[in-house]
Amino acid sequence: MWTKITHHIEELIPSPSTPTKGEKIGEMSMFDLGLGGKRAVITGGSDGLCRATALRLATEGAEVVICGRRGDYLSEQAAKLSDEAGREVRAVQADVSIAADCDRLIAEATDRLGGLDILINNAGASAAASLMEVDDAAWQADFDLKVMAAVRLCRAAVPLMRAAGGGSIVNAAIAAGKTPGAKMLPTSLTRAAGLNLTKSLAQEFAADNIRVIAICIGLLKSAQWDRRAGNAPVDELYADMSQRVPLGRVGEAEDYGDLAAFLCSARATYITGTAINLDGGICAAL
């Protein structure tokens, strides 16, 4: 019996020396993700995690719209992404902390794409301070950017995904949303709300074949960290940060882009309602 099972497994696993459908020689793509023709909206600007995710999805054949607040810069980066991916990446200027912009973003994006299959909520800069340092205005701004933006975008996206027969929503979060430490407000609280939203929507819309997943990021290279380095060498900053990571390195934006693409793909259709740590082992919670 074991011989038959082993033979069956060998038939399912392609030989590593033979490129299979979807494999790009010289790249680490093992199989077709089934993203060709999928229509995606990615929030969070055109740098870092957003850029890496847009490039991965577009390279895999998806039709992609990115959004950000800086219109000219956004269009410039979308053009560069289009050149790299070999297919058009579109840009829609929007501030997702504003309710009207959320509705307009989804409307404009779907008008250009003809529908919507994927929504990736990446928007949100890290904000970490003590309770006494965060005033009401800062709380409200963080809540609008990280919680209400996701709520509004999901609310606009769900009917379109239903019409398409299903879809995938990925919400960016952080490990501190699971295990908050001292002086990590307001981000740890608003990201925890995002995890709650993820679970709730996954339960509500599973019957519509709409999957909702969160990615809890740890220390990943990003434009935010680059800016925080100021005049200091950014490599030194990342080297110092790496000492806190069990795997011994700071993650790349591409690590996030690859995971987000996989979670939206035909290879992840049994994954929903969970929060996956992408942190090199930092988070104490599963």
How are the secondary structure elements laid out?
Layout: H1 2-12, E1 39-42, H2 48-59, E2 63-68, H3 71-85, E3 89-93, H4 99-113, E4 118-121, E5 128-129, H5 136-164, E6 167-174, E7 185-186, H6 187-205, E8 210-217, H7 223-229, H8 234-242, H9 253-263, E9 275-278
Parallel strand pairs: 1-2, 1-4, 2-3, 4-6, 6-8, 8-9
Antiparallel strand pairs: 5-7
What does this structure look like?
With 286 residues, the protein is α/β, with parallel strands linked by helices. The chain has a single domain (32-222, 252-278), classed as 3-Layer(aba) Sandwich (Rossmann fold). The protein is 45% helix and 15% strand. It has a 7-stranded parallel β-sheet, sandwiched between helices. A two-stranded antiparallel sheet has the order 5-7. α3 links the parallel β2 and β3 (89-93). α2 packs parallel to α3 (71-85) and α5 runs parallel beside α6 (187-205). The protein is globular. 41% of the residues are buried. The model is unreliable at 2-26 (pLDDT under 50).
